[in-house]
């Protein structure tokens, strides 16, 4: 704090101090006064220590990451105005601290000890995803993190269990955001009538597949047409210029692994929509992969009593008959609540995506997710 206070006093002085050249993270140099140079060096070392790296200025071999982050938070809280007039400090945040937070969130995004902080980060990411005014690279970074979150089925169940009951609606906001994202630019996804069924019109913006803040409505005939055409096969799905495929839309190296670069890499315009579809697929498959084995074990593989007729169509699982104190039962109830509360947005998003111009690989994934959701 004393070092930053000296920088603040230096900024208020009318006389010009002796300037020193300092190398910035982007490779450029900038002339700073003695106190500003010291503040820059100390803050940079705090960021390095928080990232388990060796400091350049401070004579320290180790500083606990939590303590380093607390010091950084204290500086940002008390001297945020100074950061606005010292862009070199903003560079330190962009180069050192932001990658650290993004990596930490993508690798271990949920913690009981950081429940409130996790909620704030998740809602911030969701806001970035839905706001088209943010730069493309920022939205893509947020979606890459979301793809990692959605692929963790246990994490998604925990998010629902911890936040939906308290009224935060984080999971619901995530599903709504994904639905808005994938329907953002229909022309880019090659929306056509090939999956709408015979004599079934394609959806318009004001049609039955449109989503609003009040809810969702589905055209059953349209859904039936999709399934009918899917059953007889899809011919020429990838005809035409627009559409999604792993080859044409994916990046060889995701953006979150290129945070050491000063400029954002070239990003295919359709990449963010591919990420959205992958999130939806992961969510549906995660729910099915958890409930499927339990259903098989409890219902299908249950020994039949003497004289009991064979069920050609296994009955639905009655969760109320299961032991309420078992962890598996609690998670099955969570999955049931997720489906009950989130199916309108999930089904609306999948119904739209399945009508777009997808590659064979993506189409199979989306159709399997559709099946997993309705089963």
Walkthrough of the structure:
The protein is mainly alpha-helical. It has 14 helices and four strands. It has a two-stranded antiparallel ribbon. A two-stranded antiparallel ribbon has the order 3-4. The chain is elongated, with a radius of gyration of 26 Å. Mean pLDDT is 76; it is low at 192-241.
Give the tags.
mainly alpha; 4 strands; two-stranded antiparallel sheet
Q: Sketch the topology as an H/E string, one letter per element.
A: HEEHHHHHHHHEEHHHHH
Strand content: under 5%
- Computed over alpha carbons, the radius of gyration is 26 Å
The residue-averaged pLDDT reads 76
Q: How are the strands of the largest sheet arranged?
A: 1-2
Number of helices: 14
Major β-sheet, in short?
A: 2 strands, antiparallel
Helix percentage range: 55-70%
Tell how many strands the DSSP assignment holds.
4
Terminus-to-terminus distance: 59 Å
Structural class: mainly alpha
Please state the overall shape, judged from the principal axes of the Cα atoms: elongated
**Contiguous runs where pLDDT drops below 50 for at least 5 residues:** 192-241
